[in-house]
Amino acid sequence: xxxxxxxxxxxxxxxxxxxxxxxxxxxxxxxxxxxxxxxxxxxxxxxxxxxxxxxxxxxxxxxxxxxxxxxxxxxxxxxxxxxxxxxxxxxxxxxxxxxxxxxxxxxxxx
Length: 110
Hints:
110 residues; alpha+beta; 4-stranded antiparallel β-sheet; 4 helices; 4 strands; 18% strand
């Protein structure tokens, strides 16, 4: 699974505590036992950082397909999945950013 959700930037104060809550998934419903955003990993980017809509936040998730229903349940109507072309564009930008960071660390520690 490689998905990007878009969230109105005005919801950031609701989103961040939701992502950070229950890091070990101990309070997740039985069908989502031990699932949490912290365990799965995520990135939150402002639209301006990605040259996208400045009024949106983008939540980037990668992981097992079983995590997507959990994420949708937790995010509720606060977030929607990005259109495929936006999803692909943002994932490429994130991967390029991560690749650049890895190369920079290689140059430092050679």
